[in-house]
Design brief:
The protein has a nine-stranded antiparallel β-sheet with strand order 4-3-2-1-9-8-7-6-5, with no helix packed on it. With 141 residues, the protein is α+β, with helices and mostly antiparallel strands. The protein contains two helices and nine strands, in the order ααβββββββββ. Keywords: Signal.
């Protein structure tokens, strides 16, 4: 009970200090100036996340997999999990709702171009074997 008084006065000190900072900066008239709807839109439209995908007309072991798209600092990274392997993509470029990257599968370069719309991805994987349609959805779990 003796420490309750110290905790109470420390809390009052921090609240008063925060209020004075708000008074000094009139543009921040609320405690939270971030619009939650805007934040949710950016997250919803972002390619960052885990995507389960399928590819048509390829050998069974390459017909399904998982893409993991992350962003560290200002650089995007893509991991491709397919056929019990994890491959790191190169030449990753993200422009709003477009994701492009290259990955080497069995020594051959595969260039992937994806369009992100909400929780779906659609695109093509191009290799020396041909062009293949790729579809997927965001894993929300």
């Amino acid at each position: 009970m003796r420490n309750f008084g110290k905790l109470f006065y420390a809390s009052i000190f921090f609240v008063c200090g925060s209020m004075s900072l708000l008074a000094e900066n009139p543009s921040n008239s609320t405690f939270c100036s971030i619009d939650p709807t805007e934040v949710l839109e950016k997250v919803y439209k972002s390619p960052i996340g885990i995507w389960e995908y399928t590819v048509e007309d390829v050998p069974y072991e390459y017909s399904a997999g998982v893409l993991v798209i992350t962003k560290e600092k200002e650089e995007y990274k893509v991991l491709v999990k397919v056929n019990y392997n994890t491959l790191t993509a190169s030449d990753v470029k993200v422009n709003e709702d477009e994701v492009n990257f290259s990955v080497y599968i069995e020594g051959g370069k595969v260039q992937v171009s994806l369009q992100v719309k909400d929780d779906l991805i659609n695109g093509n994987a191009n290799s020396t074997e041909g062009s293949f349609s790729l579809k997927g959805k965001r894993n929300k779990s």
